[in-house]
Amino acid sequence: MKENTSVSPLAGRSIVSFDDLTLDDIQTIFETADAISADRQAYFGKASGKIVATLFYEPSTRTRLSFEAAMQRLGGGVISTSDVKNSSVVKGESLADTVRVVGAYGDVIVIRHPLDGAAKLAAEYSPVPVINAGDGGHEHPTQTLCDLYTLREHHGTLKGLNVALCGDLQHGRTVHSLAFALARFGANIIFVPGDGNEIPAYVLRRLERNYHAHIRRERLGTLSALFDESASGDESATVNAIYITPSEPHQLAMSSIEGTTVEFRVGYGESLSLYVTRRQTERGSAMPTGGRYPALNAKSLRGSQFKNISILHPLPRIDELSPDVDNDPRSLYFRQAAIGIPIRMSLLWHVLGLGDETAVVSKQPYTQEVLGLLYSHSGFDCSNETCVTNQERLFASPQFEVVMNGDYKLRCLHCDRETDGTYAGNIESRFYYPSELLDRFLPPVSPEHVRFFASPEDAESAGFKRASDKWDSYQSRPNDNGKHWVDMVSGRTQ
Ligand code: NCD
């Protein structure tokens, strides 16, 4: 047990997004999970005197019970509000107050919450590390650790692996965290959404911006077998998008070209994994009339093209994964759920710094790496109604990253969603104008002087006056140095 000798780099850290974990962290978590699987008894008692608090504002079977079992298998204690209806939340207590109180009782908080960004808010206020066990439709990083471990164990490597993420890609938090992880590990991602459940634009943009993934549409090809027969003959059926990392061989290596249309095919020697998910009805997911949803059963997987696939599902399943494949050796979903024990034991081991019994582990402040310019001024709200910043207004301070995506947008650091920053005002002149004009002013307006607004009404209620029409003529004036304002302020070249 080499971990006994030193305190982990993960000690005291909160895990809110999958991006909070470096590749080294992931490797370390997997190595300890292996060591735990090899000799679980050796770890018993190591968390003696420590307590995990599981704060679940949404139902859970696997995640909560595996975290609690993991802590008990380390010899630690568990306190839990599995049903927040029995807590002061029903009296209107805020999340910020709840975690400050619970953080005084436990050494680490594992939280599941219906609001996007809730885990980040909790990590900001909690005196102890916070682990995100699912925040709304946003992220579920510890499920991703289980998914990656299972994939790696079965396929040997993630690099170059084709993973079809199927089902409710819009609301599926497991899908979002897994997509970011797969992009980092150089896997190819194929999105196969149910009708009306396409992958959100903000996820696509994060894949492009942060991981330099390439996107393109393809026809379903091999994957049309996931839809019922009437649909599989549909020539217009398309896979929503495919991502490849730049280090990978070009996508054509795994696709055949028919005419001008590229169709998804798994090439010789390549592996495919089907990651199936249920429709997240509790998040308002609805199927349009006549809509289709990808589903698996023994019959649909009969073809020789599926000989070497793996089948994963974060569970629970409803009707998108037939029990008639449960005993199929390609089905890994019960293994994927079982691996939750060594993975979560490993995570608790590291976050609690159990490798060094003498070390005093205190919570590290929660920070996120942001590529571009940070923006945080009152008067600009995230447009996502289920973002924690719109529900916990007393405590959440909305923070954004300025991103250029056709127009200026502000990406919420809590929920990731982008809100249009259609108008910009200069606090020196107190004039506002369409934010695209920011690119025309020479010298550029200093970032500290810029305030963004979603509408003219917002700008005017903040005391800004509409700039005269003559300012619009700036739109035709080319920017001499060819740089966008946002590139200038973030120090990036275009
Ligand atoms: C998932 C979740 O809660 O997001 N379940 C899990 O943690 N294994 C998937 C789901 O509920 O569909």
Overview of the molecule:
The protein is an alpha/beta fold. It folds into three domains: 18-137 and 339-351, Rossmann fold (3-Layer(aba) Sandwich), CATH 3.40.50; 142-338, Rossmann fold (3-Layer(aba) Sandwich), CATH 3.40.50; 373-489, no CATH class. It is built from 13 helices and 20 strands. The strands form five sheets. Strands 7-8-6-5-11-12 form a six-stranded mixed beta sheet, with helices on one face. It has a four-stranded parallel beta sheet with strand order 2-1-3-4. A four-stranded antiparallel beta sheet has the order 13-14-15-16, with no helix packed on it. A hairpin with a 1-residue loop joins strand 14 and strand 15 (407-412). Helix 3 crosses helix 4. The longest helix is centred in the first third of the chain and has 16 residues, at 23-38. The N and C termini lie far apart (48 Å). The model is unreliable at 246-260 (pLDDT under 50). N-carbamoyl-L-aspartate binds at residues 62-63, 134, 140, 143, 173-174, 277-278, 314-316.
